[in-house]
Amino acid sequence: MRVLILGGTTEASELARLVAGDRRFEATLSLAGRTSSPRSQPIATRIGGFGGVEGLARHLAEHAIGAVIDATHPYAAQISANAVAACARSGVPLVSIVRPAWMALPGDVWQSVPSTGAAVEALAGTPRRVFLSLGRQELHLFAAAPQHRYLARLIESPEQAGLPPDLVLLRRRGPFDRVAELGLLQDEKIDVMVSKNAGGTATYAKIEAARALGLPVIMIARPDKPAGLVVTSAAEAVARLAHDAAPRSLRGV
Ligand code: NAP
Question: Is the full-model pTM beyond 0.90?
Answer without folding.
Answer: yes
